[in-house]
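Hypothesis: this fold can be encoded by more than one sequence.
Test: take the structure tokens below, design a sequence, compare later.
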């Protein structure tokens, strides 16, 4: 990469963003979520460029914790709704010595709105709620939640139109 990235921190929501928003239940009561490996690879590529990464979600589940550990992200904040996501991000920013203007966030529903409105770089999946799509300055991805929309947003930062690259990263 031959140019500095405009972001220092990249955060994502989970349900409806990293996943398709579905909650799958087995006959035994196990809850499952489907994650897209391309999103994981995008997060790995950002980390290789020195960008801090994390997940901020309303849910509080072991599944998300395991995905966080697998990817080796920097921050995991669970159980935060509405303004809680923004407050948690402000705390992370203080710890890193950065401003919200240097934060990229992608989310899909009204509980993401306060953080999306405050983040310097904001995006949502193609199937986000209309209230989210209406946030001024938001980038609406062409892909839906769980279909690689996080990677699509990451590529916005990593790739110039004629600067496509590939780096060795861990298995995601």
């Amino acid at each position: 990469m031959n140019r500095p990235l405009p972001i220092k921190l990249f955060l994502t929501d989970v349900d409806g963003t990293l996943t398709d928003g579905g909650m799958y239940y087995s006959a035994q009561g196990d809850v499952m979520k489907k994650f897209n490996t391309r999103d994981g690879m995008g997060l790995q590529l950002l980390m290789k460029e020195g960008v801090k990464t994390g997940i901020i979600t309303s849910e509080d589940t072991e599944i998300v914790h395991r995905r966080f550990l697998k990817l080796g992200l920097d921050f995991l904040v669970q159980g935060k709704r509405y303004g809680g996501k923004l407050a948690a991000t402000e705390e992370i920013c203080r710890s890193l010595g950065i401003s919200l203007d240097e934060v990229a966030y992608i989310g899909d529903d009204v509980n993401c709105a306060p953080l999306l409105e405050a983040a310097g770089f904001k995006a949502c999946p193609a199937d986000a709620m209309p209230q989210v799509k209406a946030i001024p300055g938001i980038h609406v991805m062409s892909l839906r939640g769980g279909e690689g929309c996080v990677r699509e947003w990451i590529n916005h930062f990593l790739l110039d139109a004629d600067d496509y690259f590939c780096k060795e990263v861990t298995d995601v």
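Residues 83-96 form the longest helix (14 residues). The longest strand covers residues 52-56.
Hypothesis status: open.
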